[in-house]
Write a structure and sequence with these properties.
elongated, 5 helices, alpha+beta, two-stranded antiparallel sheet, single chain
């Protein structure tokens, strides 16, 4: 019977990876941080892709220059993360977030245009998260 050289070392390495996969909270925490950075970048640059501009009625009522979705910073500053051994979530605590993310309609007409910020919008975000998990599992 042929002996596979290094088989025990391979099995031990796979067991280490399996143990890390049971508690992926370090990688999930880093991924949540990356998502928070991506959301922050969307606010900083006015959307990726660019959000719809302010309506004329909004412009008429504002005093001084104002960036989209940033009047007092409440929405942008409301994002939090929750991480466990097997999952991570990033979410806003500001109740207005859903209206800006999805947009609204009034009497069948668009009232507030959708200005999405809650999804990873850049291809680099997804590959960076994949890299985080690869580094975590194969360390």
């Amino acid at each position: 019977m042929a002996e596979i050289i290094g088989f025990e070392r391979l099995v031990a390495r796979l067991e280490e990876m399996r143990a890390r996969a049971r508690d992926a909270s370090p990688a999930l925490d880093d991924a949540a941080d990356l998502a928070l950075e991506s959301i922050g970048e969307s606010f900083d640059v006015g959307g990726r892709p660019a959000w719809a501009p302010h309506a004329l009625s909004t412009l008429a009522n504002q005093i001084g220059p104002r960036r989209l979705l940033i009047e007092h910073g409440d929405l942008q500053g409301s994002f939090q993360k929750r991480v466990s051994a097997t999952s991570a979530s990033v979410f806003p605590t500001d109740w207005k977030a859903v209206f800006h993310e999805m947009g609204t309609q009034m009497h069948g007409q668009q009232h507030i245009p959708a200005r999405p910020f809650m999804h990873l919008q850049q291809p680099g975000d997804i590959s960076a998260i994949g890299k985080l998990f690869g580094e975590y599992l194969f360390q």
